[in-house]
Design brief:
This is TraB/GumN family protein. It is built from 14 helices and eight strands. By secondary structure, the chain is of the alpha/beta class. The chain has a domain of about 190 residues.
């Protein structure tokens, strides 16, 4: 705070500044966004899929939601247009199949896994892009009920007649995955199903970090999970985070807004919290 850098005018200002500084350094999954020319808004870090036993929408989140007039998620998944876009962007080009990007042993491993977990082998999923197949595998790999913050928030918005918008389009999100060679994505899929215990540990660790509301630890663990793949971290997190800042400014100028994005997007120097601060907004954690 400026009062700590410059001459401390009074003891009162000193105490106030120290208090505000300490507050801003705390961590939370929910952040208040304030600034000139915008309506007070809230940024909520979600976990797209979380064990049902760990799912909780705290009172502070409900209050922030009620204080907002519109809801903005990473994607607007409402309406028939989204499903049309999903079909258009989630499948390989006509005449192309996933088996052309893998060897026989990889195909057999994936085929056996899918038969065991879903009852259908690779032919059922042969035209899906790897990121879509990964979604199927993740869902099939978890042996416990799951919950989704996004689905819950969309239902709440519908019941409250709040407008739902998206920070980005499905096409731009899919482009992030398409930037990685399909062969590498297949290798990642094979590694995932080859190490079920390790993946269960990763999933549970992410859930624990989420419940602890430690956004910096979540960001760090995401980096570790991606094995230091700088290019993917930049494309999957950093570039998207930077693209969201003007969108957040636009929506918050219109109305008090409740934002819901993956919690891994909040922490780090290129995280949404820090980028909003660099853009001149005051962003403070909302504590229990």
């Amino acid at each position: 705070m400026n009062t700590l850098v410059k001459i401390i005018v009074t003891v009162t200002l000193s105490i106030l500044s120290l208090t505000l500084s300490a507050q801003e350094n705390k961590s939370s999954n929910l952040w208040k966004i304030e600034g000139d020319n915008i309506k007070t808004s809230y940024l909520f870090g979600t976990m797209h899929l979380i064990p049902q036993k760990d799912f909780q929408l705290k009172d502070k989140v409900k209050s922030a939601f009620e204080a907002s007039e519109q809801v903005v998620l990473e994607l607007d998944m409402t309406g028939p247009e989204f499903m049309k876009d999903m079909m258009a962007h989630s499948y390989l080009e006509k005449g192309t199949e996933l088996k052309s990007y893998m060897d026989e042993s990889e195909y057999e491993l994936l085929d056996n896994f899918l038969k065991e977990k879903t009852g259908n082998g690779m032919p059922m999923y042969s035209t899906m892009k790897p990121f879509m197949l990964m979604s199927v595998i993740i869902m099939a790999s978890v042996d416990e009920p799951l919950a989704s913050f996004e689905m819950t928030l969309m239902q709440m918005a519908k019941e409250a007649n709040k407008e739902i918008e998206g920070l980005e389009t499905l096409a731009s999100q899919v482009a992030v995955f398409d930037a990685a060679p399909y062969e590498k994505q297949i290798d990642d899929l094979v590694e995932m199903i080859s190490k079920p215990e390790e993946n269960a540990e990763i999933f549970n660790k992410m859930a624990q970090l989420y419940v602890s509301e430690d956004i910096e630890a979540m960001y760090g663990y995401m980096d570790e999970y991606m094995k230091g793949d700088i290019v993917m971290m930049e494309k999957f997190l950093d570039e998207r985070n930077n693209n969201w800042i003007p969108e957040i400014a636009k929506f918050s100028k219109e109305a008090p807004t409740f934002y819901g994005v993956g919690a891994a997007h909040l922490g780090g120097d290129q995280g949404v919290v820090n980028l909003l601060r660099e853009a001149g907004y005051r962003v403070t954690p909302v504590m229990d």
